[in-house]
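Box 3.1 A note on notation
Throughout this textbook, protein chains are presented in two layers. The first layer is the amino acid sequence; the second is a token string describing backbone geometry. Keep the layers aligned when reading.
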Amino acid sequence: MKFRKKPVVIEAVQWGTNYRFSEVPNWLKAAIDNSINGGVLRCVDDIHVFTLEGVMVASPGDWIIRGIKGELYPCKPDIFAATYETVSDVH
């Protein structure tokens, strides 16, 4: 059998690219501030993302994705580009 992933709209930000911390989305700021389960711990340029699968490290250029249940996880740029596309209008 073959399966296709359902179309799901997610939020994401590319970590460590040309923005100031004040421009980081509120959902990522809250996760950094709280460092709770599903949150992140900022370590210099990298951030450690606490996921259900364990701690994953995101380096500058990696994408931080907020899933449909608010969970956070990092994604390498090449995988992100192959998996996601920009959505211009969401209802």
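The helical segments are 26-34, 77-83. The mean pLDDT is 80.
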